[in-house]
Amino acid sequence: MQITETSADGLRREYKVTVPAADIQNRVTAKLTEIGKSVRMPGFRPGKVPMPLLKQRYGQSVMGEVLEGAVNDSTAKAVEQNNLRPALQPKVEIINFADGQDLEFAVNVELLPEFEPADLSAVELDKPVVEVTDAMVDEALGRLSKGRRTTVKVEEERPAASGDILLIDFDGSVDGERRPGMKGEGYELELGSGTFIPGFEDQLVGAKPGEHKTVTVTFPAEYHAAELAGKEAVFEVDVKELRQGQDAVLDDELAKSFGFDTLDALKDAIRERMAADYGNTSRLRAKRALLDKLAELHDFEVPAGMVDIEFNQIWERLQQELKAGGGDAEDKEKDEEALKAEYRAIAVRRVRLGLLLSEIGRRNNITVTREELNRAVIEEVRRYPGQEQQVFEFFKKNPQAAEGLRAPIYEDKVVDFILGTVKVTEKPVSVEELMREPEEDEGVAAAA
């Protein structure tokens, strides 16, 4: 076998590989001999079928298998002999082959870049943090209390005001005709809630229990039921009772309804949950700052093939968002070429950061353990309540799917390692500042 480098341009290498015809023939003969040991043909004992007959019967299929094996083996040899680190699967192009002739093919390889990670010991980052205060816990408790709100009858004789709740019976018509869905009995309507058609609730402000009201409204032009859109409707309304909302009492009984023994235990759980949520967001902000700094400190060539794959994934998602009516408003105003250039730059950043994190992880012996991967699978299973068994079986039957969870775990471990190396200063911020979404992309395409 002869391997000759024919081109070297940046991270791209091309080799011409020649496999002698004799080697190909030896492989074919060996394969046919192996087949002949077990094949049964009329008139011949097992293992006694003549080679010419074997070649006639199986030669074509064996040749295809042999060529594939020869190409794979030779490609691997070319990579090994030249100490190459392919970024992607090498591309093979057959140059020449005919029965009895040498096999010639070209191998195109795109390499991983060789680079030296910057010294990060002098890097300084701000990490936004939020302190969970008693007031924040009390506010969260208040939301829980409102979520368990009940209504009580107002004994005082007075007209209904905005915020009050009326218990009503109603029956509506359009053009004098009763329509389905326009009648109700014993309905609790909070005035000012915007639950009913615009204008309906306003006309019941001032009503008293026992009164009958005729309410005339117009359905909005964009109403979901096209046959009612823009039509005038008349509702006959009987006010049965005036009620007020009453938040649940903040006590141990409320806590028990959420699965806690005491109100203090519920408060502690709320505090811990808020601290964990804000802590996760804080880490994400610190990670973004770190990635921005890493991108600033490194500018090495990246494999074009990896960039193409990353860009195509980004572009496909963007097109799906735009087709669904989503996407960034600014993106919709840009011409396609400018938009592609912008997102290709994002793809380059992602690939470069991914390679950098992989290299830092490799140099510091960072790996993903089987236990960590199993935990990730369990977490993924929990994301599908009621379908846990099916999802678990999917991962069990498709090990490659579980392996797909390895990259984000690896990336997080490397990021945490770097955050433990650089100088991180915690910066107290408000909840609004912490939760404010960053404007730019922060993705990484890391390889474990």
UniProtKB/TrEMBL annotation:
Span of domain PPIase FKBP-type: 163-243
Reported function: Involved in protein export. Acts as a chaperone by maintaining the newly synthesized protein in an open conformation. Functions as a peptidyl-prolyl cis-trans isomerase.
GO biological process: one example: protein unfolding
The keyword Phosphoprotein belongs to this UniProt entry's keyword annotation: no
Top-level lineage group: Bacteria
PROSITE patterns membership: FKBP_PPIASE
InterPro entries per the UniProt record, alphabetical: PPIase_dom_sf (IPR046357), PPIase_FKBP_dom (IPR001179), Trig_fac (IPR005215), Trigger_fac_C (IPR008880), Trigger_fac_C_sf (IPR037041), Trigger_fac_ribosome-bd_bac (IPR008881), Trigger_fac_ribosome-bd_sf (IPR036611), Trigger_fact/SurA_dom_sf (IPR027304)
Broad class of the protein's primary localization: cytoplasm
Entry coiled-coil feature ranges: none
Native organism: Aerophototrophica crusticola
Listed GO CC annotations: cytoplasm
Subcellular location: Cytoplasm
Name used for this protein in its record: Trigger factor
Enzyme Commission (EC) number: 5.2.1.8
Similarity section: Belongs to the FKBP-type PPIase family. Tig subfamily.
Catalytic activity: [protein]-peptidylproline (omega=180) = [protein]-peptidylproline (omega=0)
Domain notes: Consists of 3 domains; the N-terminus binds the ribosome, the middle domain has PPIase activity, while the C-terminus has intrinsic chaperone activity on its own.
